[in-house]
Amino acid sequence: NRYIAEHNGRPKPFVWTKPAAAILDAVNGNAAPSV
């Protein structure tokens, strides 16, 4: 697939934008208010 080849040609690391606790709370249905 051309898209995958292009995307993998210039990779960049994934950066979490929220603390893990906030993500887990959202997944578990306990969403914290956004800042």
TrEMBL record:
- The name this protein goes by in its record: IS630 family transposase
Q: What is the lineage of its organism?
A: Bacteria, Pseudomonadati, Pseudomonadota, Alphaproteobacteria, Hyphomicrobiales
